[in-house]
């Protein structure tokens, strides 16, 4: 298995990985929604605001994670959002997802990213360093349906830096039904 920063040419395979993984775990409707989200990310997000990381085995995309830039009215803290992440159903439970996220975060840290946030399962993401936060620490771009899923970590080896004021996500994920 090899983790890497995505450089192009596999959009269809990436979209299908996310669509199938979410279909398997949460049903066909969720698979379609996440597949469409990934397509929007890949087609419409400026390169400076997105990083896509993949795991490939035997020329098949078996893991993927997308990070996108968050911007704040009152802060210059370099913070990115991890969402979504997918591992092929047959490869889940092998540590592949943790390895890919750790690889991705090391890459982002080397690019100067200070903090990462996600909106997901604390039982999984705590394995790669995420801890629950409140919106008083880092506000979310849109209203959270499950505030307990708002989690973050510092990549700078220090405590999270609280952020005040309005936060903006990239357009691909700026839709209330995803939050």
What is the secondary structure topology, with strand pairs?
Blueprint: E1 2-5, H1 11-26, H2 28-44, E2 50-57, E3 60-72, E4 79-87, H3 96-110, E5 115-119, H4 122-125, E6 131-132, E7 150-154, E8 167-168
Domain N-acetyltransferase: 1-147
Protein name: N-acetyltransferase
What would you note in describing this structure?
This protein is 29% helix and 27% strand. It has 4 helices and 8 strands; from the N terminus they run βααβββαβαβββ. The protein starts with a strand and ends in an 11-residue tail after the last strand. This is N-acetyltransferase. Pfam families: Acetyltransf_7 (PF13508).
Counted by DSSP, the helix tally is 4
Q: Which spans have pLDDT < 50 for at least 5 consecutive residues? A: none
Shape: globular
Query: How do the helices and strands follow one another from N- to C-terminus?
Result: EHHEEEHEHEEE
Structural class: alpha+beta
Measured by DSSP, the beta-strand proportion falls in 25-35%
Which range best describes the helical content: under 10%, 10-25%, 25-40%, 40-55%, 55-70% or over 70%? 25-40%
Largest sheet: 8 strands, mixed
Radius of gyration: 15 Å
Number of strands: 8
Pfam family, one: Acetyltransf_7
Domain N-acetyltransferase: 1-147
Protein name: N-acetyltransferase
InterPro entries: Acyl_CoA_acyltransferase (IPR016181), GNAT_dom (IPR000182)
């Amino acid at each position: 298995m090899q983790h890497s920063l995505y450089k192009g040419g596999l959009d269809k395979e990436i979209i299908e990985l996310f669509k199938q993984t979410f279909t398997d775990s949460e049903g066909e409707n969720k698979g379609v929604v996440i597949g469409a989200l990934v397509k929007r990310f890949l087609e419409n997000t400026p390169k400076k605001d997105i990083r896509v990381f993949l795991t490939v085995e035997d020329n098949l995309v078996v893991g993927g994670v997308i990070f996108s830039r968050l911007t704040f009215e009152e802060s210059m803290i370099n913070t990115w959002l991890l969402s979504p992440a997918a591992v092929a159903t047959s490869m889940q439970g092998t540590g592949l997802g943790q390895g890919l996220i750790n690889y991705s975060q090391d890459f982002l840290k080397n690019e100067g990213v200070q903090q990462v946030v996600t909106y997901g399962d604390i039982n999984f993401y705590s394995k790669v360093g995420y801890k629950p936060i409140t919106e008083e620490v880092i506000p979310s771009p849109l209203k959270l349906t499950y505030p307990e899923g708002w989690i973050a970590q510092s990549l700078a080896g220090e405590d999270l830096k609280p952020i005040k004021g309005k936060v903006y996500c990239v357009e691909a994920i700026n839709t209330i039904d995803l939050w």
